[in-house]
Every structure is written in C-alpha cells, then in structure tokens.
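Q: Start with the shorter request: fold the first protein.
A: Done. Sequence, then structure:
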Amino acid sequence: MTPFELAEPASLKEAVGLLDAEDPTVRPIAGGTALMLMMKAAVFRPSRLVSLRRIEPRYAEISAGPDGHLRVGAMATLSALERAPAVREKLPIVIHTLRTLSNVRVRNVATVGGNLAHGDPHMDLPPVLIALDARVTIASPTAERVLPVEDLFAGYYETVLARNELIVELRIPAQAKRRAAYVKITTGSADDWPAVGVAVAVEADGPAVRAATVAVGAATEKATRLKGAEAALSGARGDDAALVRIADAAAAEVEILSDLRGSAPYKRELLRVAVKRAVRQALAQDGGVG
C-alpha cells in the first residue's frame, strides 16, 4: 500500500471538517472491512483516511424510542445490532438477516453506517431496511439531512453522499403489526453473498394485504424498491395465483444484472421464487415483524 495520512478526530464535527468535498482520495474509515480490501488490491490509494473510531460514543448506541422506533448510531457494529435487546424484541427480521450476513469476524468490525455508505448492491441489509421504511441522518460541515434508505443508493457501488458527508444515524420506525420477511438465495454457503435477496413488509387483515413494501438486492445495480410488486400485492390474499402475479410483476419491473452468481435470466427466475417465498413467510406470521 502507498503511504497515507491517518487522522483520528475526537468528535463528529472534527471528522466532517477533515473530509474534502473535492478530493476523492480523502475517505472516512469506520470498520474498514471493505475499504482495506480495496487498498490491498490497489483499487483505492488514499492520501488521507479519517478514522471515526474515536468520535462521540453516542454514535455507536442503539436504543428504542417511546413510540417504538429504533435509533441505531452509524458506528454501531453489525454484531452489536444483532445482540441489541431492542432489536431482538421489535425487529427479529434484522436478527434473521444478520445471522447469514458474511461471518461473525466481519460483523464484529463492520459498522451499520459503513455497510450502507459502501453502496454494495449485494448487501443483505439494504433491502430489509427499505422494506421497513428506515431512514438515515446524514451530516455535512454545515447541516444535516434525512433520507429514506431507498433514496441513498444512486447506482452500482454509488450513493448520493457527498465526499464530505457522513451517515450518523439509522432510524427504523415502529412497525406496529406489520409483518416482514427476508429471503436470501445464495449459490454458495449460507453466509455467502446473495444471488438474490428479497424483503417484504405487509399490513394485512388476516391473509388479505392492505399495503406492502417490497425490495430486492443483489440482482440489480442497487437495492431497489419494487413498486409494481407492491401494487400487485395490494388486496391480494396470498393464494398461488396471486403469488404468481406478484412474482411476475417484480420480475418485469427491474433490470437484472448478470454476475459470478448467475446470469440475468437465471436471477430473474430466482427473483420470482424469492418474492413468492417472502410474501408467504410474511403473511404466515401471526402479527408483528418477524
């Protein structure tokens, strides 16, 4: 690796001030699980890394609000998210997702904010967070802004973050009686990258769906909300014919990308399978977000 400067600010304000909106070789580093691999492969040669590990501890906290929403500091590790009692109680779908997200060594280091800021379309969490209507708070040197997670991703490994902006918080609203499920299909081991990942959250009266959010990852250039599938789900009861219509709507509305885990036609069929499984699993729950 080429030499670079390492800055270790003690506050968020200082960290943001050390970033450079005009210089792509200045980057923040949190867990560094992806960035260090890029540096070792000489894909990225930084002039300065701004370490976030010493900023205020509150940015690593996970807590539940009085209305039931979850606040997750961007510096919380994926393992901390997996172990948090508030997450276990209110969002077991997140626990289920994390248990096959890479391996425990990575989850012990990787942070929630870094996972999202990396913009990798193969990640498991983004479609789940999109389905749960989660939002991120983003800080710059002059202001903060709040975005739905679905609006954070701009393309293949691209986000809308400016070079001098940082994700500081993830907020997941109270889910009440929404039912949610995530289906991951891999071509390798259970903790491998997904070939397709589909998350579904539904509001339902028994088997009848009133409203739904559906998101896909890994098969597309970015984690994407499937509004055609959502429209097909509205009013559906989860019978076989309805599931076929919903799966077909999902497969028809996005461009599928080929990669090492499968061709586009193969992944389109996997998407149909994953959508049907996720809807079935969500509707089979008695209530709450599973």
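Q: Next, the second protein, separately.
A: Sequence, then structure:
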Amino acid sequence: MRTWSRWLVAAASLLLLALYVTPLWRIQLHAPQYPEGLGLRIWVDQITGAKPNDLNSINGLNHYIGMHAIDPHDFPELRLMPWLLGGLIAAGLLVALIGKRGPLYAWLQLMIIAGVAGLVDFYRWGYAYGHELDEHAAIKVPGMSYQPPIIGSKQLLNFHASSWPDLGGWLAALAIAIGLTIAVLEWRRAVRVRGIQRDGLDHSGFPVIA
C-alpha cells in the first residue's frame, strides 16, 4: 500500500471513534396529536428519546396497542457493540501500520459484516416488537402489526414512522466508503504493476535487464 493509502485507512479507522458520541440510527413518529413528533435515537451503547421524554411517551403509546416497553437494558447488543467497535478501530490502525492489501480486505469484510449484522439485528428487534403483541391490550386491530421500517417510511395507524441513519450511521458508511475506495485503487495498482512486470518493464517503464 502507498503511504497516502495507509494514512487514509488510519483516518477512516479514527473516524469510527465518532460513533461513541453520535447516534447511529433515528426513528421518528409523527401524528396529528403529536405535531412536534416523537423520536428514538439508537447509539452504540444506548437507546434514548430524541427529546427528554420521548422514550417514555413512546412506551406509553406502545402499552395501549400491546407492544413491549423499549428498555435499553433488554438489549445485550448494546453492551457488546462498544467492544466490537473498539476492535474494528484497532484493526484498522493495525492495517494502516502493516500496509498490506490482504489485511485491508479482511478489515473491510469485517466492517461490512458488522454493518449487515447490525441491520439484521435491527430488523429482528423491530419484528419482535411489532408482532409479539399483548392479547389483552386496550387497542387491538385485527391483522395489524407495528414493525417500524429499517430504512424509509411507513404508516402505522395514525402515525407516520420513518427510520434513517443518524450522524453516526453516515460516518460509519463514510469510513467503509473510504476503505473500499482505497482497496479498489490499491488492487488496480497491483494489477497494473503485475502487467508491467509481465511485459518486461520495471515501475519506471524501462525494460527489465536480467
């Protein structure tokens, strides 16, 4: 890997530090009785309301339709994710120090796997909360489920729910994009160098003298 590639990989790794202090995902709920909206923020180690009382308000609404209360303590992932994130940061810095393409590819695969696993877990969580309803709930709508969208918007009774990456999620995507760009550029460079060497030229374009 070239020197500037290694510096960019290190920068992408350090960019992930921002995920400790910025939310990864946001869920917004809008309805006529809540014109200002209600929101959730999912962080690497906690779930909070977008505003101080939003989480309590959402749990109160969920109680009437039979959904479980959202309690951050019920999510073991929130205790594991800070350590996994720290491992990805350390691994990225090690890749920058080693400066080899193989470790770079492995690091990128780990980051992509972590991202996909996070989305799958988010879907699993949303499915469970939206479908496993209390049969004794005050409000029951036959055939209705309340699973929030993973990405995009959805109408849930009189609530318009939207789900999008928050600042931390976009920064994680940027770190992956930087890593992928470096990987592609370094791979293309390696292919070009192999082609030059196969044609009997050195890096400067002069014939190789045996």
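Q: Describe the second briefly.
A: Confidence is low (pLDDT under 50) at residues 206-210. The beta strands are 25-31, 34-42, 47-49, 152-156, 159-165.
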